[in-house]
Amino acid sequence: MSDIMVQIPFHKIMERVMFEKENYNTVYGVSNLYTHDGKKDLSLFEHSLENPFGPAAGPHTQLAQNLIAAYVGGSRFFELKTVQIVDGHDLHVEKPCIRADDECYNVEWSTELYVPQALEEYIKGWYAIKLIAKEYGFGDPDKFIFNMSVGYNLEGIQSKKIDDFIEGLKDASNTETWKECENWALEHVEEFKNVDEAYIKSISPQICNSITLSTMHGCPSDEIEGIITHLLTNKKINTYLKCNPTLLGYEFVRKTMDDMGYDYMSFDTHGFDSDLQFEDAVILIRKMQELAKENDLVFGVKLSNTFHVKINNSELPGQDMYMSGKALYPLTINVAAKLAKEFDGKLPMSFSGGADANNIKDIFSTGIWPITVATILLKPTGYQVIKKLATLLDECEFPADQTVNVSLLEELAKNSIEDKNYRKSEVARKKPLLTFGENVNVRVECKVTCGSCVNVCPNRANTTLMVDGVKRMLHVDDYCNECGNCYIFCPDKCTPYKDRLTLFAGRKELENSTNQGFAVVGDSLVYRMDGEIKESAFRDTPETIQSFVEALREQQPYLL
Protein backbone atom coordinates (compact mmCIF):
# COMPACT_ATOMS: atom_id res chain seq x y z
CA MET A 1 0.00 0.00 0.00
CA SER A 2 1.43 3.35 -1.02
CA ASP A 3 1.03 6.25 1.39
CA ILE A 4 1.78 8.76 -1.36
CA MET A 5 -1.23 10.64 -2.68
CA VAL A 6 -1.57 10.97 -6.43
CA GLN A 7 -2.78 14.26 -7.87
CA ILE A 8 -5.89 14.12 -10.01
CA PRO A 9 -5.75 16.03 -13.33
CA PHE A 10 -8.19 18.92 -13.53
CA HIS A 11 -10.22 17.33 -16.31
CA LYS A 12 -10.76 14.20 -14.20
CA ILE A 13 -11.85 16.33 -11.25
CA MET A 14 -14.45 18.12 -13.32
CA GLU A 15 -15.61 14.94 -15.06
CA ARG A 16 -16.35 13.41 -11.68
CA VAL A 17 -18.11 16.50 -10.36
CA MET A 18 -20.36 16.75 -13.39
CA PHE A 19 -21.15 13.02 -13.59
CA GLU A 20 -21.93 12.78 -9.89
CA LYS A 21 -24.04 15.90 -9.77
CA GLU A 22 -26.11 14.88 -12.77
CA ASN A 23 -26.60 11.25 -11.77
CA TYR A 24 -26.70 11.32 -7.97
CA ASN A 25 -26.97 14.99 -6.93
CA THR A 26 -23.77 14.54 -4.94
CA VAL A 27 -20.29 16.02 -5.31
CA TYR A 28 -17.33 13.92 -4.18
CA GLY A 29 -19.72 11.88 -2.11
CA VAL A 30 -21.21 14.89 -0.32
CA SER A 31 -25.00 14.60 -0.47
CA ASN A 32 -25.83 17.27 2.11
CA LEU A 33 -25.41 20.14 -0.33
CA TYR A 34 -25.62 23.79 0.77
CA THR A 35 -26.92 26.72 -1.24
CA HIS A 36 -26.43 30.25 0.05
CA ASP A 37 -29.53 32.42 -0.16
CA GLY A 38 -27.58 35.60 -1.01
CA LYS A 39 -29.34 37.69 1.63
CA LYS A 40 -26.27 38.72 3.63
CA ASP A 41 -22.51 38.49 3.68
CA LEU A 42 -19.37 39.69 5.45
CA SER A 43 -16.29 41.58 4.32
CA LEU A 44 -12.78 40.33 5.03
CA PHE A 45 -9.49 41.36 3.40
CA GLU A 46 -11.52 43.51 1.00
CA HIS A 47 -13.40 40.43 -0.19
CA SER A 48 -17.01 39.44 0.33
CA LEU A 49 -17.70 36.23 2.23
CA GLU A 50 -21.04 34.40 2.25
CA ASN A 51 -20.37 32.84 5.62
CA PRO A 52 -17.39 32.90 7.99
CA PHE A 53 -16.77 29.18 8.15
CA GLY A 54 -14.74 26.38 6.58
CA PRO A 55 -11.99 23.80 6.96
CA ALA A 56 -8.83 24.53 8.93
CA ALA A 57 -5.33 23.98 7.57
CA GLY A 58 -5.06 20.22 7.73
CA PRO A 59 -6.23 17.00 6.09
CA HIS A 60 -9.31 18.65 4.56
CA THR A 61 -7.42 21.35 2.65
CA GLN A 62 -4.54 19.40 1.16
CA LEU A 63 -6.04 18.33 -2.18
CA ALA A 64 -8.36 19.94 -4.70
CA GLN A 65 -11.09 17.37 -4.12
CA ASN A 66 -11.06 18.17 -0.39
CA LEU A 67 -11.66 21.85 -1.08
CA ILE A 68 -14.48 21.06 -3.48
CA ALA A 69 -16.18 18.70 -1.03
CA ALA A 70 -15.93 21.34 1.70
CA TYR A 71 -17.35 24.07 -0.55
CA VAL A 72 -20.44 22.16 -1.69
CA GLY A 73 -21.14 21.29 1.95
CA GLY A 74 -21.27 24.99 2.83
CA SER A 75 -17.72 26.16 3.54
CA ARG A 76 -16.76 29.61 2.33
CA PHE A 77 -13.46 30.27 4.14
CA PHE A 78 -10.62 27.83 3.44
CA GLU A 79 -7.37 27.81 5.38
CA LEU A 80 -5.11 25.91 2.99
CA LYS A 81 -2.80 23.28 4.42
CA THR A 82 0.52 24.70 5.58
CA VAL A 83 3.55 24.56 3.31
CA GLN A 84 7.18 24.73 4.36
CA ILE A 85 10.58 24.35 2.74
CA VAL A 86 10.84 20.69 3.80
CA ASP A 87 8.39 18.85 1.59
CA GLY A 88 7.55 15.70 -0.35
CA HIS A 89 9.83 12.75 0.30
CA ASP A 90 12.05 14.88 2.51
CA LEU A 91 9.19 15.35 4.96
CA HIS A 92 8.89 12.19 7.02
CA VAL A 93 5.41 11.78 8.47
CA GLU A 94 4.86 8.72 10.63
CA LYS A 95 1.89 6.63 9.53
CA PRO A 96 -0.81 6.28 10.66
CA CYS A 97 -0.92 9.95 11.57
CA ILE A 98 -4.47 10.78 12.76
CA ARG A 99 -6.94 9.46 15.29
CA ALA A 100 -10.18 11.26 16.12
CA ASP A 101 -12.13 8.72 18.17
CA ASP A 102 -12.74 11.26 20.98
CA GLU A 103 -10.44 14.26 21.30
CA CYS A 104 -8.19 14.23 18.24
CA TYR A 105 -4.44 13.61 17.91
CA ASN A 106 -2.14 13.87 14.93
CA VAL A 107 1.54 13.59 14.08
CA GLU A 108 1.31 15.30 10.69
CA TRP A 109 1.76 19.03 10.29
CA SER A 110 2.44 20.46 6.82
CA THR A 111 1.46 19.23 3.37
CA GLU A 112 2.87 15.89 2.30
CA LEU A 113 3.05 17.11 -1.28
CA TYR A 114 5.95 19.00 -2.74
CA VAL A 115 5.29 22.73 -2.49
CA PRO A 116 4.81 23.19 -6.27
CA GLN A 117 2.29 20.33 -6.17
CA ALA A 118 0.44 22.01 -3.30
CA LEU A 119 0.24 25.18 -5.39
CA GLU A 120 -1.25 23.14 -8.24
CA GLU A 121 -3.88 21.60 -5.95
CA TYR A 122 -4.94 24.97 -4.56
CA ILE A 123 -5.25 26.48 -8.03
CA LYS A 124 -7.31 23.53 -9.27
CA GLY A 125 -9.53 23.70 -6.19
CA TRP A 126 -10.08 27.44 -6.65
CA TYR A 127 -10.90 27.14 -10.34
CA ALA A 128 -13.20 24.16 -9.86
CA ILE A 129 -15.16 25.97 -7.14
CA LYS A 130 -15.52 29.01 -9.40
CA LEU A 131 -17.08 26.80 -12.08
CA ILE A 132 -19.20 24.74 -9.67
CA ALA A 133 -20.59 27.77 -7.83
CA LYS A 134 -21.75 29.33 -11.08
CA GLU A 135 -22.99 26.20 -12.79
CA TYR A 136 -25.00 24.75 -9.91
CA GLY A 137 -25.96 27.95 -8.11
CA PHE A 138 -24.43 27.00 -4.76
CA GLY A 139 -23.63 30.65 -4.10
CA ASP A 140 -21.94 33.74 -5.45
CA PRO A 141 -18.70 32.54 -7.08
CA ASP A 142 -16.92 35.67 -5.86
CA LYS A 143 -17.85 35.28 -2.19
CA PHE A 144 -15.51 32.65 -0.83
CA ILE A 145 -11.94 33.11 0.40
CA PHE A 146 -8.78 31.03 0.22
CA ASN A 147 -6.27 31.77 2.98
CA MET A 148 -2.77 30.36 2.54
CA SER A 149 -0.72 29.00 5.45
CA VAL A 150 3.07 28.95 5.60
CA GLY A 151 5.74 27.99 8.14
CA TYR A 152 8.00 27.67 9.96
CA ASN A 153 11.01 30.02 10.03
CA LEU A 154 12.19 33.16 8.27
CA GLU A 155 14.87 31.48 6.18
CA GLY A 156 12.43 28.92 4.83
CA ILE A 157 9.69 31.46 4.11
CA GLN A 158 12.15 33.71 2.28
CA SER A 159 13.40 30.79 0.14
CA LYS A 160 12.58 30.76 -3.55
CA LYS A 161 10.41 27.67 -3.10
CA ILE A 162 8.06 29.31 -0.61
CA ASP A 163 8.27 32.73 -2.24
CA ASP A 164 7.18 31.24 -5.57
CA PHE A 165 4.30 29.57 -3.76
CA ILE A 166 3.16 32.84 -2.16
CA GLU A 167 3.44 34.75 -5.42
CA GLY A 168 1.71 31.94 -7.31
CA LEU A 169 -1.35 32.23 -5.07
CA LYS A 170 -1.33 36.01 -5.13
CA ASP A 171 -1.59 35.75 -8.92
CA ALA A 172 -1.79 32.35 -10.61
CA SER A 173 -2.29 33.64 -14.15
CA ASN A 174 1.21 32.71 -15.35
CA THR A 175 1.19 29.18 -13.94
CA GLU A 176 0.76 26.13 -16.16
CA THR A 177 -1.98 24.86 -13.86
CA TRP A 178 -4.06 27.99 -14.36
CA LYS A 179 -3.72 27.67 -18.12
CA GLU A 180 -4.67 23.99 -17.91
CA CYS A 181 -7.84 24.81 -15.99
CA GLU A 182 -8.82 27.71 -18.23
CA ASN A 183 -8.17 25.74 -21.43
CA TRP A 184 -10.26 22.83 -20.23
CA ALA A 185 -13.14 25.11 -19.29
CA LEU A 186 -13.07 26.87 -22.66
CA GLU A 187 -12.87 23.58 -24.58
CA HIS A 188 -15.85 22.16 -22.67
CA VAL A 189 -17.97 25.29 -22.36
CA GLU A 190 -20.77 23.65 -24.35
CA GLU A 191 -21.20 21.10 -21.54
CA PHE A 192 -22.24 23.82 -19.08
CA LYS A 193 -25.68 25.37 -18.75
CA ASN A 194 -24.78 28.46 -16.74
CA VAL A 195 -21.11 28.98 -17.54
CA ASP A 196 -20.14 30.76 -20.75
CA GLU A 197 -16.91 31.93 -22.32
CA ALA A 198 -17.22 35.43 -20.88
CA TYR A 199 -17.55 34.04 -17.36
CA ILE A 200 -14.56 31.73 -17.80
CA LYS A 201 -12.38 34.60 -18.94
CA SER A 202 -13.57 36.70 -15.99
CA ILE A 203 -12.38 34.23 -13.33
CA SER A 204 -9.81 35.99 -11.20
CA PRO A 205 -6.36 34.39 -10.88
CA GLN A 206 -5.77 36.37 -7.67
CA ILE A 207 -6.41 33.48 -5.32
CA CYS A 208 -5.04 34.69 -1.98
CA ASN A 209 -4.36 38.07 -0.41
CA SER A 210 -4.08 36.71 3.14
CA ILE A 211 -1.81 34.33 4.98
CA THR A 212 -1.76 32.49 8.29
CA LEU A 213 1.71 32.13 9.78
CA SER A 214 2.47 28.94 11.66
CA THR A 215 5.72 28.79 13.62
CA MET A 216 7.51 25.95 15.37
CA HIS A 217 7.05 25.46 19.08
CA GLY A 218 9.86 27.40 20.74
CA CYS A 219 10.25 29.90 17.90
CA PRO A 220 11.71 33.08 19.47
CA SER A 221 9.84 36.37 19.41
CA ASP A 222 12.36 38.16 17.19
CA GLU A 223 12.13 35.35 14.60
CA ILE A 224 8.34 35.61 14.54
CA GLU A 225 8.59 39.39 14.20
CA GLY A 226 11.01 39.01 11.32
CA ILE A 227 8.64 36.70 9.44
CA ILE A 228 5.59 38.91 9.94
CA THR A 229 7.57 42.00 8.93
CA HIS A 230 8.64 40.22 5.76
CA LEU A 231 5.06 39.21 4.93
CA LEU A 232 3.60 42.64 5.60
CA THR A 233 6.29 44.85 4.05
CA ASN A 234 7.81 42.70 1.30
CA LYS A 235 4.91 40.44 0.33
CA LYS A 236 2.20 43.05 1.05
CA ILE A 237 -0.18 40.42 2.32
CA ASN A 238 -2.72 40.43 5.16
CA THR A 239 -1.27 38.28 7.93
CA TYR A 240 -2.60 36.33 10.89
CA LEU A 241 -0.26 34.80 13.47
CA LYS A 242 -1.26 31.35 14.71
CA CYS A 243 -0.80 31.34 18.49
CA ASN A 244 -0.27 28.41 20.84
CA PRO A 245 -2.35 27.38 23.89
CA THR A 246 0.86 27.71 25.91
CA LEU A 247 0.06 31.45 26.19
CA LEU A 248 -2.20 30.42 29.08
CA GLY A 249 0.69 29.14 31.18
CA TYR A 250 1.40 25.64 32.45
CA GLU A 251 -0.56 25.85 35.70
CA PHE A 252 -3.80 26.94 34.01
CA VAL A 253 -3.56 24.32 31.26
CA ARG A 254 -2.63 21.48 33.60
CA LYS A 255 -5.44 22.27 36.03
CA THR A 256 -7.97 22.72 33.22
CA MET A 257 -7.10 19.41 31.60
CA ASP A 258 -7.18 17.63 34.97
CA ASP A 259 -10.50 19.16 35.99
CA MET A 260 -12.08 18.25 32.66
CA GLY A 261 -11.03 14.61 32.81
CA TYR A 262 -7.94 14.75 30.61
CA ASP A 263 -5.52 14.12 33.48
CA TYR A 264 -3.88 11.35 31.42
CA MET A 265 -2.54 13.88 28.93
CA SER A 266 1.20 14.09 29.35
CA PHE A 267 3.03 17.41 28.94
CA ASP A 268 5.64 19.26 30.96
CA THR A 269 6.72 22.84 31.54
CA HIS A 270 9.36 22.84 28.80
CA GLY A 271 6.98 23.75 25.98
CA PHE A 272 5.50 26.56 28.02
CA ASP A 273 8.91 27.96 28.92
CA SER A 274 10.28 27.82 25.36
CA ASP A 275 7.17 29.07 23.53
CA LEU A 276 6.28 32.73 23.03
CA GLN A 277 5.38 34.23 26.42
CA PHE A 278 2.13 36.16 26.82
CA GLU A 279 3.83 39.47 27.70
CA ASP A 280 6.13 39.17 24.69
CA ALA A 281 3.18 38.22 22.48
CA VAL A 282 1.31 41.37 23.49
CA ILE A 283 4.31 43.57 22.64
CA LEU A 284 4.80 41.78 19.33
CA ILE A 285 1.13 41.97 18.34
CA ARG A 286 0.88 45.70 19.08
CA LYS A 287 3.97 46.36 16.99
CA MET A 288 2.68 44.25 14.10
CA GLN A 289 -0.73 45.93 14.21
CA GLU A 290 0.97 49.27 13.67
CA LEU A 291 3.12 47.88 10.88
CA ALA A 292 0.06 46.44 9.14
CA LYS A 293 -1.74 49.76 9.43
CA GLU A 294 1.23 51.56 7.83
CA ASN A 295 0.95 49.14 4.89
CA ASP A 296 -2.87 49.35 4.60
CA LEU A 297 -3.14 45.69 5.60
CA VAL A 298 -4.80 43.65 8.33
CA PHE A 299 -2.90 41.87 11.09
CA GLY A 300 -4.62 39.49 13.48
CA VAL A 301 -4.24 36.21 15.32
CA LYS A 302 -5.39 32.67 14.62
CA LEU A 303 -6.47 30.83 17.76
CA SER A 304 -5.16 28.36 18.20
CA ASN A 305 -2.53 25.92 17.18
CA THR A 306 -2.83 22.31 18.28
CA PHE A 307 -1.45 21.41 21.72
CA HIS A 308 1.78 19.42 21.99
CA VAL A 309 1.55 16.33 24.23
CA LYS A 310 3.50 13.12 24.73
CA ILE A 311 2.64 9.71 23.30
CA ASN A 312 2.47 7.30 26.24
CA ASN A 313 -0.05 4.65 25.19
CA SER A 314 0.75 3.95 21.51
CA GLU A 315 -2.02 6.28 20.39
CA LEU A 316 0.11 7.02 17.31
CA PRO A 317 3.67 6.16 16.30
CA GLY A 318 6.53 8.21 17.69
CA GLN A 319 7.06 10.14 20.92
CA ASP A 320 5.07 13.35 20.42
CA MET A 321 1.64 14.20 19.05
CA TYR A 322 -0.66 17.21 18.73
CA MET A 323 -4.05 17.42 20.41
CA SER A 324 -7.11 19.09 18.90
CA GLY A 325 -10.87 18.76 18.97
CA LYS A 326 -13.14 19.02 21.98
CA ALA A 327 -10.32 19.06 24.57
CA LEU A 328 -8.71 22.01 22.78
CA TYR A 329 -11.84 24.16 22.90
CA PRO A 330 -11.55 25.37 26.53
CA LEU A 331 -7.90 26.23 25.97
CA THR A 332 -8.45 28.08 22.69
CA ILE A 333 -11.45 30.07 23.89
CA ASN A 334 -9.53 31.07 27.03
CA VAL A 335 -6.54 32.23 24.97
CA ALA A 336 -9.00 34.29 22.93
CA ALA A 337 -10.50 35.84 26.06
CA LYS A 338 -7.11 36.67 27.51
CA LEU A 339 -5.94 38.41 24.33
CA ALA A 340 -9.27 40.14 23.73
CA LYS A 341 -9.17 41.69 27.18
CA GLU A 342 -5.59 42.89 26.67
CA PHE A 343 -6.52 44.56 23.37
CA ASP A 344 -9.96 45.79 24.46
CA GLY A 345 -11.58 43.75 21.69
CA LYS A 346 -9.63 45.55 18.95
CA LEU A 347 -7.62 42.55 17.77
CA PRO A 348 -9.03 40.59 14.78
CA MET A 349 -9.23 36.90 15.61
CA SER A 350 -9.95 33.76 13.66
CA PHE A 351 -10.81 30.59 15.56
CA SER A 352 -9.99 26.91 15.27
CA GLY A 353 -10.07 24.67 18.29
CA GLY A 354 -13.00 22.37 18.94
CA ALA A 355 -15.66 24.42 17.18
CA ASP A 356 -18.84 22.38 16.68
CA ALA A 357 -22.63 22.64 16.53
CA ASN A 358 -22.84 23.28 20.28
CA ASN A 359 -20.58 26.34 20.34
CA ILE A 360 -20.17 27.79 16.86
CA LYS A 361 -22.96 30.39 17.21
CA ASP A 362 -21.62 31.43 20.61
CA ILE A 363 -18.10 31.87 19.25
CA PHE A 364 -19.34 33.92 16.31
CA SER A 365 -21.57 36.07 18.52
CA THR A 366 -18.49 37.28 20.43
CA GLY A 367 -17.10 38.82 17.22
CA ILE A 368 -14.54 36.10 16.50
CA TRP A 369 -14.50 34.96 12.88
CA PRO A 370 -13.71 33.26 10.54
CA ILE A 371 -14.15 29.92 12.30
CA THR A 372 -12.45 26.81 10.93
CA VAL A 373 -12.75 23.15 11.87
CA ALA A 374 -10.90 19.89 11.33
CA THR A 375 -11.66 17.31 14.03
CA ILE A 376 -15.42 17.36 13.56
CA LEU A 377 -14.89 16.59 9.86
CA LEU A 378 -12.89 13.50 10.85
CA LYS A 379 -15.90 12.06 12.69
CA PRO A 380 -18.35 9.61 11.02
CA THR A 381 -20.48 12.43 9.56
CA GLY A 382 -17.44 13.80 7.71
CA TYR A 383 -18.09 16.56 5.19
CA GLN A 384 -21.83 15.97 5.58
CA VAL A 385 -21.87 17.99 8.83
CA ILE A 386 -20.65 21.19 7.15
CA LYS A 387 -24.12 22.23 5.98
CA LYS A 388 -25.42 22.06 9.55
CA LEU A 389 -22.65 24.32 10.83
CA ALA A 390 -22.96 26.77 7.94
CA THR A 391 -26.73 26.95 8.44
CA LEU A 392 -26.31 27.68 12.15
CA LEU A 393 -24.13 30.66 11.28
CA ASP A 394 -26.64 31.84 8.68
CA GLU A 395 -29.09 32.26 11.56
CA CYS A 396 -26.78 34.76 13.28
CA GLU A 397 -26.62 38.49 12.83
CA PHE A 398 -23.57 39.32 10.71
CA PRO A 399 -21.31 42.03 12.19
CA ALA A 400 -19.80 44.95 10.30
CA ASP A 401 -16.27 44.23 11.51
CA GLN A 402 -14.20 41.96 13.77
CA THR A 403 -14.54 43.86 17.04
CA VAL A 404 -14.70 41.36 19.89
CA ASN A 405 -17.22 41.63 22.73
CA VAL A 406 -14.81 41.08 25.63
CA SER A 407 -17.33 40.48 28.40
CA LEU A 408 -19.32 38.02 26.30
CA LEU A 409 -16.16 36.17 25.37
CA GLU A 410 -14.92 36.02 28.95
CA GLU A 411 -18.22 34.49 30.04
CA LEU A 412 -18.03 31.93 27.23
CA ALA A 413 -14.45 31.06 28.19
CA LYS A 414 -15.40 30.63 31.86
CA ASN A 415 -18.35 28.38 31.01
CA SER A 416 -16.32 26.23 28.61
CA ILE A 417 -14.50 24.54 31.47
CA GLU A 418 -17.78 23.35 32.99
CA ASP A 419 -19.43 22.46 29.69
CA LYS A 420 -20.11 18.72 29.60
CA ASN A 421 -19.77 18.69 25.81
CA TYR A 422 -16.01 19.23 26.14
CA ARG A 423 -15.24 17.24 29.27
CA LYS A 424 -14.02 13.67 29.05
CA SER A 425 -17.02 11.48 29.74
CA GLU A 426 -16.82 8.56 32.14
CA VAL A 427 -17.88 6.24 29.32
CA ALA A 428 -15.00 7.44 27.15
CA ARG A 429 -12.55 7.17 30.04
CA LYS A 430 -13.45 3.54 30.63
CA LYS A 431 -13.40 2.55 26.97
CA PRO A 432 -10.27 0.55 26.11
CA LEU A 433 -7.89 2.40 23.80
CA LEU A 434 -7.88 0.92 20.31
CA THR A 435 -4.29 0.79 19.10
CA PHE A 436 -3.23 0.51 15.49
CA GLY A 437 -2.58 -3.04 14.33
CA GLU A 438 -5.15 -4.44 16.74
CA ASN A 439 -7.86 -4.83 14.11
CA VAL A 440 -6.54 -6.87 11.22
CA ASN A 441 -9.13 -8.80 9.29
CA VAL A 442 -8.33 -9.16 5.61
CA ARG A 443 -11.58 -9.82 3.77
CA VAL A 444 -13.02 -8.42 0.57
CA GLU A 445 -16.47 -8.14 2.12
CA CYS A 446 -17.59 -6.06 5.08
CA LYS A 447 -19.98 -7.80 7.47
CA VAL A 448 -22.21 -4.78 7.00
CA THR A 449 -21.19 -2.06 4.55
CA CYS A 450 -21.86 0.95 6.77
CA GLY A 451 -19.95 3.59 4.80
CA SER A 452 -18.22 5.01 7.88
CA CYS A 453 -14.85 4.74 6.16
CA VAL A 454 -16.20 6.81 3.26
CA ASN A 455 -17.27 9.74 5.42
CA VAL A 456 -14.27 9.90 7.74
CA CYS A 457 -11.72 9.95 4.90
CA PRO A 458 -10.67 13.54 4.09
CA ASN A 459 -9.43 12.52 0.64
CA ARG A 460 -12.44 10.46 -0.47
CA ALA A 461 -10.22 7.36 -0.72
CA ASN A 462 -13.05 4.96 0.13
CA THR A 463 -16.29 4.50 -1.76
CA THR A 464 -19.33 2.27 -1.85
CA LEU A 465 -21.21 0.94 -4.84
CA MET A 466 -23.80 -1.69 -5.66
CA VAL A 467 -22.11 -4.91 -6.79
CA ASP A 468 -24.43 -7.71 -7.92
CA GLY A 469 -27.24 -6.03 -6.01
CA VAL A 470 -25.27 -5.73 -2.77
CA LYS A 471 -23.72 -2.57 -1.31
CA ARG A 472 -19.94 -3.08 -1.25
CA MET A 473 -16.94 -1.01 -0.20
CA LEU A 474 -13.92 -0.28 -2.42
CA HIS A 475 -10.67 1.44 -1.48
CA VAL A 476 -9.03 3.86 -3.96
CA ASP A 477 -5.24 3.63 -3.69
CA ASP A 478 -4.39 6.91 -5.45
CA TYR A 479 -6.26 9.10 -3.00
CA CYS A 480 -4.93 7.52 0.20
CA ASN A 481 -2.06 8.67 2.41
CA GLU A 482 -2.65 6.05 5.11
CA CYS A 483 -3.71 8.58 7.74
CA GLY A 484 -5.46 5.75 9.59
CA ASN A 485 -8.67 7.54 10.50
CA CYS A 486 -10.91 5.00 8.75
CA TYR A 487 -9.38 2.24 10.89
CA ILE A 488 -10.33 4.03 14.10
CA PHE A 489 -14.00 4.20 13.11
CA CYS A 490 -14.46 0.83 11.38
CA PRO A 491 -16.99 -1.30 13.34
CA ASP A 492 -16.02 -4.41 11.37
CA LYS A 493 -12.62 -4.90 13.03
CA CYS A 494 -10.63 -4.14 9.92
CA THR A 495 -8.22 -1.62 8.50
CA PRO A 496 -10.13 -0.48 5.40
CA TYR A 497 -7.12 1.02 3.63
CA LYS A 498 -5.25 -2.29 3.90
CA ASP A 499 -7.84 -5.02 4.26
CA ARG A 500 -10.44 -4.18 1.65
CA LEU A 501 -10.44 -4.67 -2.09
CA THR A 502 -8.47 -1.84 -3.67
CA LEU A 503 -8.58 -0.06 -7.01
CA PHE A 504 -5.07 0.72 -8.31
CA ALA A 505 -4.01 3.08 -11.08
CA GLY A 506 -1.72 0.50 -12.68
CA ARG A 507 0.53 -2.54 -12.31
CA LYS A 508 3.34 -0.68 -10.54
CA GLU A 509 1.00 0.67 -7.90
CA LEU A 510 -0.47 -2.78 -7.31
CA GLU A 511 2.96 -4.35 -7.03
CA ASN A 512 4.00 -1.74 -4.46
CA SER A 513 1.12 -2.79 -2.24
CA THR A 514 0.08 -5.90 -0.34
CA ASN A 515 -3.63 -5.22 -0.79
CA GLN A 516 -5.99 -7.48 -2.65
CA GLY A 517 -7.24 -5.51 -5.62
CA PHE A 518 -7.04 -4.75 -9.30
CA ALA A 519 -5.98 -2.31 -11.99
CA VAL A 520 -7.36 -1.87 -15.48
CA VAL A 521 -4.41 -1.92 -17.89
CA GLY A 522 -5.48 -1.49 -21.50
CA ASP A 523 -7.71 -4.42 -22.39
CA SER A 524 -6.45 -6.50 -19.47
CA LEU A 525 -6.84 -6.62 -15.73
CA VAL A 526 -3.94 -6.97 -13.33
CA TYR A 527 -5.07 -8.23 -9.96
CA ARG A 528 -3.95 -9.75 -6.68
CA MET A 529 -6.14 -12.31 -4.98
CA ASP A 530 -4.92 -14.61 -2.21
CA GLY A 531 -1.47 -13.05 -2.40
CA GLU A 532 -0.75 -13.87 -6.05
CA ILE A 533 -0.51 -11.27 -8.84
CA LYS A 534 -2.00 -12.28 -12.19
CA GLU A 535 -2.90 -10.60 -15.47
CA SER A 536 -5.65 -11.74 -17.78
CA ALA A 537 -8.42 -10.67 -20.10
CA PHE A 538 -11.52 -9.38 -18.36
CA ARG A 539 -13.53 -12.56 -18.96
CA ASP A 540 -10.83 -14.68 -17.32
CA THR A 541 -10.58 -12.76 -14.06
CA PRO A 542 -12.30 -13.92 -10.85
CA GLU A 543 -16.01 -13.17 -10.71
CA THR A 544 -15.55 -10.82 -7.77
CA ILE A 545 -13.15 -8.62 -9.75
CA GLN A 546 -15.38 -8.71 -12.82
CA SER A 547 -18.38 -7.64 -10.78
CA PHE A 548 -16.54 -4.69 -9.24
CA VAL A 549 -15.23 -3.49 -12.60
CA GLU A 550 -18.68 -3.72 -14.17
CA ALA A 551 -20.18 -1.79 -11.25
CA LEU A 552 -17.51 0.91 -11.54
CA ARG A 553 -18.03 1.32 -15.27
CA GLU A 554 -21.73 1.86 -14.72
CA GLN A 555 -21.83 3.77 -11.44
CA GLN A 556 -18.47 5.52 -10.97
CA PRO A 557 -16.66 5.54 -14.34
CA TYR A 558 -14.56 8.56 -13.29
CA LEU A 559 -12.51 6.25 -11.07
CA LEU A 560 -11.31 4.13 -13.99
What is the global morphology?
A: globular
- What portion of residues belong to β-strands? 15-25%
Query: What is the distance, rounded to the nearest whole angstrom, between the alpha carbons of the first and last residues?
Result: 18 Å
Poorly predicted regions are none
Secondary structural class: alpha/beta
Strand order of the largest sheet: 4-7-8-9-10-13
Entry summary:
With 560 residues, the chain is an alpha/beta fold. The protein is 36% helix and 15% strand.
Question: What does this molecule look like?
Answer:
The chain has 560 residues and is of the alpha/beta class. Helix content is 36%, strand content 15%. It contains 21 helices and 20 strands. The strands form five sheets. Strands 4-7-8-9-10-13 form a six-stranded parallel beta sheet. The protein has a six-stranded mixed beta sheet with strand order 15-16-17-18-19-20. Strand 5 and strand 6 form a beta hairpin. Helix 3 runs parallel beside helix 5 and helix 3 packs parallel to helix 6. The longest helix has 22 residues. The two termini are 18 Å apart. The model has no long low-confidence stretch (mean pLDDT 95).
